[in-house]
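Sample entry (246 residues):
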Amino acid sequence: MVKPISNFGKYIMLMGRVFARPERFRMYFKQYVNEMAQLGINSIGIVLLISFFIGAVICIQIKLNIESPWMPRFVVGYTTREILLLEFSSSIMCLILAGKVGSNIASELGTMRVTQQIDALDIMGVNSASYLILPKIIGLMTMIPLLVVFSIFAGIIGAFCTAWFAGIMNATDLEYGIQYSFVEWYVWCSFIKSLFFAFIIASVSAFFGYTVEGGSIAVGKASTDAVVSSSVLILFSDLILTQLLS
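Predicted structure, serialized as tokens:
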């Protein structure tokens, strides 16, 4: 019980250093652009691939399991859209990114810690926490809404490909269902939740990497702890945000 409370206190203190006023904005901006490319743009491929197949699978499962003479044919498209908007493209996709991006951040900062690069920055008078972590947090929060948009469109395209090529249903019915009773607020809900999840992924993973003590084995353990902790916090915050935004 003592260790989680201690870690939470260290996390709050680290975030206080992270959000201190930057010394040179130009240096931070360059780092920010690099982090957007490394954490966001490099994740587009896996987001598109997973979302495409998940959209196709959701469409097939709904068609096979809720098909009924009493059920309108467009319900498949409607349900697929709601699942993609409300949960998959924000919550589940961020869980997947917690594994890819979170481990990347934790291992990168952990390696810098054990090789004493962070200590060198501190000796030179640089606020190493702010310089290394703040661009990652802002960069990931900038790119996450874009990844959510890609995920939604890829999932819908996957559903359409299933309807066209697998022939499980009429593509016109699927299109009508996707457009039926569309609520714009659900898209904004996805964006809002994804911003919170992006902050959790970047900050928690950076905390475990930045506070590594030991050698290369400790870096591997920090990466694992970062992914597990980020995933649990994403699920917990998803529960709270769903209640607040509904």
